[in-house]
Amino acid sequence: MLQKDVKLDNTTKTWVLKKHIDFLQSFGKERHQYESSMMEFLRMSGMYWGLTALYLINDGKIPKEDEIFEYIKSCEHSCGGYSPAPGHDPHLLYTLSAVQIACLLNRELELPTEKIVSYVSKLQQDDGSFTGDKWGEIDTRYSFCALACLSLLGKHNEINLVKAVDFIKSCQNFDGGFGSRPGAESHGGLIYCCVGSLSIAGRLDLVDADTLGWWLAERQLPSGGLNGRPEKLPDVCYSWWVFSTLNILGRDHWIDKEELKTFILASQDNEGGGFSDRPGDEPDPFHTLFGLAALSLMSYDNILPIDPTYCMPKAVINRLGLKPQTLSRP
Amino acid sequence: MHNRLKVRTTEAQKAAADREKEKKLQLYRNTINDVFERRSRNEYDVLALKSSEGLLRSNPDIVTIWNYRKEILLHLKPSEEIINDELYLTEKCLQVNPKSYSAWYHRNWLLDNVDPSPDWNKELQLCTKYLKIDERNFHCWDYRQIVASKCQEPNENELKFTMEMIESNFSNYSAWHYRSKLFSAAGKDEESTKISELSLVESAAFTDPSDQSAWIYQRWLIGKLEPSKFIYKVSRIKNKIYLILNRKLPNNYKIIGLGETNWEQFDSKIWYKKLDNIDSSKIQIIDEVNQVIDNLSIDNVQQNIFNLNISEQLRLVLNGQLDSLHQLLDMEPESKWALLTYVLLLYTLKPNNYFKNCLKNIKLLKELDSKRKNYYHDLESRYQIEHWIANNNNNNMDSVNLKGYGLTAFYHMHMFLFNKNIDLSDNDLSHTNLNHLKNLIMCEQLSLKNCKLENLDNFPALNNLEVLDLRENKIQEISYKELTKCKSLKKIILDKKQIALDKILECINQSTNIEIL
Ligand SMILES: [Zn+2]
């Protein structure tokens, strides 16, 4: 069987910082109107990706702060949840994004904390899991959303943390990884959500760091890129999900960082800026954030430091007084 | 956002594409506005359902539109025909995006909440059909588990299904994963299951040695073997009894013996209690049904602490695998997965000369699989330390000599809790976390000579430490401050190359001397 991977050119691509800034700043403008409208159903998260990415490479500066905060307010619902865009329904995914953006803007105190806490805690089920909204879909992604969102507001003791941790533990698999629900297959993105939740809860002792760390290290392919599951193609977003988890577990030296950098840099769009899922594809803010965030964890260029648990600038996490748990190297 | 190839276009092509986009955008806006308006007018009828179908077919991820449909369906008390149409719509949407969380969930929700007589068996067939087309779709595998439990499909049948999938393509990690879950749930006879799985996995791995799915599964099967012993050492220090374990105790296990008071945890692998009315000198670990799992008396050391619990029958099978791996490696000496599994099996079975053989092959792995060379370094460090402990654990030894073992990581440092003289010199500890030394609480003399140290960050407060050898490192002067935590430290040994001695003196306690050798 041929291994699934991509082939890179032999030359390392140049780092086009200025173009990335232009690319990120152009969102919301004419140039991306079509994409932006068609992606309206996740716009709040789109803004979090774009603004966090911009913060990291633009000296922590975010343009049009008031306009952005107004937008968050326009997505606020009386239940305490946030929708991706006006007219859409509130959901835990976009509630987290809204809180993250407010923290980036240093305006989280202006949010209706009590209402948000009430919205999030009502979504917790008897088994400790969380549904994404009132329609009942359960997923460990939502556990992470709940824990991250409330801890950013300093309120993570308002949910049943013990049960939340128990549920995550029940999603652990033979390979040390985690899936979306008990029984579900391990997957790089869901592993990040589960390990991230345990990091916030201070319960990384529940992770078998050597077993999981090795499985994650095996995600690195000959191209240097990381995939999210065995025998899958590499993708820049897994540079974040997989690499940040390795970092949290104190085992990021188990892969070749130089080769990972080369793969991420190869996924830049050297004409218009931005990063795509893999070399040669269309760039988007999602992969631009996760590419830059992974480069930040490897201290590339002058990208500002990122927190591996929250995927937010370290300076913001420090300002909020948060200390998510990490493990040390063996 | 995924798999969209960037294509070069001419100006004319771009203009045409822009016009096309503009048309699509207009259509999208008109439709979604129409749907939202209907919703705001509380329209819960078949027409309203029809109005959003096209929108979802081209973009199945708009959750709010699915939510509106849920509201309508709850309101309508729909006929069988409407329910079937709705199921058909989700199928169509999944053809557009097989990874659409919201389309998968809508289907599940519909059968759970609206359909009065959901046909879960039909769902199971649908999952089978989809998985034959897209064999690694984890949404479908996850949904299949929900469906299988709804229609109470026997585990045997699901195991048979995973077998079919694996036989058509060994490289189906999702199917291997599902097998691991089905076995755990069945609580079947572990031993016979393990033996039959090992032979299945062997044929898969040998068919295509470069495919990792079966190898990972095999590593799990081997890794599930655990040492029979828990307790490494029990010893008395002043008025306390310390108990050192080789791994964390399972949740419902208990430690008993030596009086009524409870054992307290120093960390997960070190337990202690104050000496009081000793009723016996025996300490026992018991499981949830009070069966004794392990026991030891005070001032004793357990031999063979790392030996695994393997039955004769299983040993036979594993030895057979070791032989076949040997043959495979003769034919394909560069097969990384075969080599790694060979090392793991050697270490598990510990035949004659196994250790030398392990080290030789780990060295090969570092070269063959250089991306993960640091993983192999750390694995080797663990093996080296375990080997040293297994071969040097007699009672009266105060010294630990791990000089020059090429260690890059600390494993089992807690097992050196009682040792007074510890030599870790000539290793590469440049990237390790010195905090791992925190369990060396009885240590009086410690050598970290020539360990490539650049700083002393996180050096723990070792209250009994008197002499610390730091020769042949390049440690920043300022980081000597860390050593002020060690209250009994009398002497730091440095070499002549160490300049800026005065700066170091400023950083350390006055009671500590520096000796230059
Ligand atoms: Zn991606």
Automatic annotation (TrEMBL), chain A:
The keyword Magnesium does not apply. SUPFAM superfamilies: Terpenoid cyclases/Protein prenyltransferases. GO terms for biological process: protein localization to membrane. Its EC number is 2.5.1.60. Pfam families: Prenyltrans. Residues 18-312 form the Prenyltransferase alpha-alpha toroid domain. Binds 1 zinc ion per subunit. Coiled coil: none annotated. GO terms for cellular component: Rab-protein geranylgeranyltransferase complex. It comes from the Eukaryota. Catalyzes the transfer of a geranylgeranyl moiety from geranylgeranyl diphosphate to both cysteines of proteins with the C-terminal sequence -XXCC, -XCXC and -CCXX. This is Geranylgeranyl transferase type-2 subunit beta.
TrEMBL record, chain B:
GO terms for molecular function: Rab geranylgeranyltransferase activity. The keyword Transferase applies. GO terms for biological process: prenylation. It catalyses: geranylgeranyl diphosphate + L-cysteinyl-[protein] = S-geranylgeranyl-L-cysteinyl-[protein] + diphosphate. The keyword Cell inner membrane does not apply. Residues 1-20 are annotated as: Disordered. Catalyzes the transfer of a geranyl-geranyl moiety from geranyl-geranyl pyrophosphate to cysteines occuring in specific C-terminal amino acid sequences. Belongs to the protein prenyltransferase subunit alpha family. This is Geranylgeranyl transferase type-2 subunit alpha. It comes from Acyrthosiphon pisum (Pea aphid).
